[in-house]
Protein backbone atom coordinates (compact mmCIF):
# COMPACT_ATOMS: atom_id res chain seq x y z
CA UNK A 1 0.00 0.00 0.00
CA UNK A 2 1.34 3.42 -0.97
CA UNK A 3 1.63 5.94 1.88
CA UNK A 4 3.07 9.38 2.38
CA UNK A 5 6.54 9.44 3.91
CA UNK A 6 8.04 12.66 5.18
CA UNK A 7 9.37 15.90 3.65
CA UNK A 8 12.91 15.95 2.28
CA UNK A 9 14.93 19.15 2.04
CA UNK A 10 17.87 19.47 -0.36
CA UNK A 11 20.93 21.06 1.24
CA UNK A 12 24.57 21.65 0.40
CA UNK A 13 25.93 21.23 3.95
CA UNK A 14 24.38 18.22 5.66
CA UNK A 15 26.00 18.79 9.05
CA UNK A 16 24.93 22.45 9.20
CA UNK A 17 21.40 21.59 8.04
CA UNK A 18 21.10 18.72 10.51
CA UNK A 19 22.22 20.99 13.35
CA UNK A 20 19.75 23.73 12.35
CA UNK A 21 16.68 21.54 11.77
CA UNK A 22 17.40 19.35 14.82
CA UNK A 23 17.53 22.42 17.05
CA UNK A 24 14.64 24.15 15.27
CA UNK A 25 12.23 21.22 15.57
CA UNK A 26 13.67 19.43 18.63
CA UNK A 27 14.59 16.39 16.54
CA UNK A 28 17.50 13.94 16.64
CA UNK A 29 19.76 12.78 13.81
CA UNK A 30 19.31 9.04 13.35
CA UNK A 31 22.57 7.12 12.91
CA UNK A 32 20.62 4.15 11.59
CA UNK A 33 18.93 6.10 8.79
CA UNK A 34 21.79 8.42 7.74
CA UNK A 35 24.69 8.29 5.29
CA UNK A 36 27.31 10.53 3.67
CA UNK A 37 24.63 12.04 1.39
CA UNK A 38 21.60 11.80 3.66
CA UNK A 39 20.41 12.59 7.17
CA UNK A 40 17.18 11.39 8.72
CA UNK A 41 15.83 13.38 11.64
CA UNK A 42 13.56 11.62 14.10
CA UNK A 43 11.11 12.76 16.73
CA UNK A 44 11.07 11.80 20.41
CA UNK A 45 9.16 8.63 19.55
CA UNK A 46 11.81 7.59 17.00
CA UNK A 47 9.53 8.24 14.03
CA UNK A 48 11.29 9.50 10.92
CA UNK A 49 10.16 13.11 10.58
CA UNK A 50 12.41 14.99 8.13
CA UNK A 51 14.96 13.98 5.54
CA UNK A 52 17.97 16.05 4.49
CA UNK A 53 19.53 15.17 1.15
CA UNK A 54 22.81 16.47 -0.24
CA UNK A 55 22.01 18.64 -3.25
CA UNK A 56 24.14 20.53 -5.73
CA UNK A 57 21.26 22.63 -7.09
CA UNK A 58 20.55 26.01 -5.51
CA UNK A 59 17.38 26.53 -3.45
CA UNK A 60 14.39 27.86 -5.34
CA UNK A 61 13.54 31.46 -4.46
CA UNK A 62 9.81 30.71 -4.77
CA UNK A 63 9.42 26.97 -4.28
CA UNK A 64 6.10 25.40 -5.12
CA UNK A 65 6.45 23.17 -2.06
CA UNK A 66 7.75 24.31 1.33
CA UNK A 67 7.50 23.55 5.05
CA UNK A 68 4.93 25.26 7.29
CA UNK A 69 5.83 25.23 10.97
CA UNK A 70 2.86 25.85 13.29
CA UNK A 71 2.54 27.85 16.49
CA UNK A 72 -0.64 28.60 18.45
CA UNK A 73 -0.35 32.33 19.17
CA UNK A 74 1.10 35.55 17.82
CA UNK A 75 3.41 35.79 20.85
CA UNK A 76 4.67 32.25 20.26
CA UNK A 77 5.24 33.11 16.60
CA UNK A 78 7.41 36.10 17.54
CA UNK A 79 9.36 33.99 20.04
CA UNK A 80 9.94 31.15 17.59
CA UNK A 81 10.93 33.48 14.73
CA UNK A 82 13.51 35.10 17.02
CA UNK A 83 14.78 31.67 18.15
CA UNK A 84 15.06 30.42 14.55
CA UNK A 85 16.92 33.56 13.50
CA UNK A 86 19.30 32.91 16.41
CA UNK A 87 19.87 29.37 15.10
CA UNK A 88 20.90 30.70 11.68
CA UNK A 89 17.66 31.26 9.77
CA UNK A 90 17.38 34.45 7.73
CA UNK A 91 14.55 36.67 6.52
CA UNK A 92 14.52 36.44 2.72
CA UNK A 93 13.20 39.28 0.59
CA UNK A 94 9.56 38.29 0.26
CA UNK A 95 7.06 40.45 -1.60
CA UNK A 96 4.25 37.88 -1.52
CA UNK A 97 2.75 38.71 1.86
CA UNK A 98 -1.00 39.38 1.96
CA UNK A 99 -2.30 42.44 3.80
CA UNK A 100 -2.47 40.86 7.26
CA UNK A 101 -0.42 37.66 7.09
CA UNK A 102 -0.65 34.87 9.63
CA UNK A 103 2.78 33.63 8.55
CA UNK A 104 6.40 34.79 8.54
CA UNK A 105 8.69 33.61 5.75
CA UNK A 106 12.19 32.55 6.81
CA UNK A 107 15.00 30.65 5.11
CA UNK A 108 17.17 27.93 6.61
CA UNK A 109 20.99 28.35 6.50
CA UNK A 110 20.95 26.80 3.00
CA UNK A 111 18.40 29.32 1.71
CA UNK A 112 15.37 26.98 1.66
CA UNK A 113 12.29 29.03 2.53
CA UNK A 114 9.74 27.94 5.12
CA UNK A 115 6.92 29.62 7.02
CA UNK A 116 6.11 30.03 10.68
CA UNK A 117 2.31 30.11 10.81
CA UNK A 118 0.27 31.53 13.69
CA UNK A 119 -2.74 29.19 13.83
CA UNK A 120 -4.72 31.68 15.92
CA UNK A 121 -4.82 33.94 12.86
CA UNK A 122 -4.94 31.36 10.03
CA UNK A 123 -5.71 31.30 7.24
CA UNK A 124 -4.26 34.47 5.76
CA UNK A 125 -6.65 36.39 3.60
CA UNK A 126 -5.57 37.43 0.19
TrEMBL record:
Positions of the VOC domain: 3-119
Gene3D superfamilies in alphabetical order: 2,3-Dihydroxybiphenyl 1,2-Dioxygenase, domain 1 (3.10.180.10)
InterPro entries, alphabetized: Glyas_Bleomycin-R_OHBP_Dase, Glyoxalase_6, VOC_core
Entries under PROSITE patterns matching the protein: VOC (PS51819)
Superkingdom, taxonomy of origin: Bacteria
Pfam families: Glyoxalase_6
Transmembrane segments: none
UniProt xrefs under PANTHER family: CONSERVED PROTEIN (PTHR35908:SF1), HYPOTHETICAL FUSION PROTEIN (PTHR35908)
Protein name: VOC family protein
Native organism: Pseudonocardia kongjuensis
Amino acid sequence: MLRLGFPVVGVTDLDRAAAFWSAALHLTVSDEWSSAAWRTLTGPDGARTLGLMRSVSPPEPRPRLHLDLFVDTTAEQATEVARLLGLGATRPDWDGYPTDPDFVVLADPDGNVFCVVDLSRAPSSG
